Amino acid sequence: MMDWTDRHCRFWFRLIFPQTLLYTEMITTDALLYGDRRRLLAYDASEHPVALQLGGGEPGSMAVCARMAEDWGYDEVNINVGCPSDRVQSGSFGACLMAEPDRVAACVEAMRAAVDIPVTVKTRIGIDELDDYEHLRHFVLTVASAGCETFIIHARKAWLSGLSPKENREIPPLDYPRVYRLKRDFPALSIVINGGIKTVDDIMAQLHYVDGVMVGREAYQNPYALIGLRADLYGEQGGLPGRKAVVDQYLSYMRGQVAQGVYLKHMTRHILGIFQGVPGAKRWRRYLSENACRPGAGVDVVEAALEQVSQFKNVTEGVSSES
To answer: Which one is catalytic: 9, 65, 83, 96?
Structure first.
């Protein structure tokens, strides 16, 4: 999720989801090789386990960047073979690499030779006219032969022209059975499914067919809807923290970041959806949107926004792990 799952977002997610594997936004190899490496790779220790997602298609550069990931302590390095944006295509990486399985395999081989952490691949079920199961199977077989043991599959094809990235996340139909078939054909591989999964029940149902589930947009837009995973999937006992309690934890982080010169708006943009579906949510979003961007804005803005919704009982209450 380019421009979304930055380090502030991941710290926020970790407060809600203590045990899930987090992924960075896609970072290009050129950005790491020639840009501000420290800014791009920095993360808080609480984010572990965390994977660095790379965008690139040249084996040598991918290997160098994978080594950076390992040196910085990332738990996994992931190759993005799913992003269909024009900007990514112009760099000959992302979803267009589905047409070049040998090239992806060469990247995996070079990266695995350079690091000991897992090298994984996130991809689509197809692109353009390369949209049948046999092509997907050939792609996975080729890349797996280079040593990739985990594939995250977005269960939609991508159109490389004619649709925007947003449309490519919504218009091509989901085809979960194609991903299930992949798991049946490659039982030794770890197959993780992605796309259109929105509820705890959805996640638990998918785990009957695949090894894992990746949730992107729903986790970002409505994160509290998934807090039940802590009980259902990880067996956490007792009451789970309420929405306000999670925001209160994030406040401590924001205070420290603001003191270091980070703009408040760079952190509050990630928490707009925490009260989705409860009374006061609109006032919360509006207050933060209007005030967090003001020069010199501090965490008092968030505290004032909380006052807009704190009168409502279901904002402060936690969730029972039995509910």
So the answer is: 83
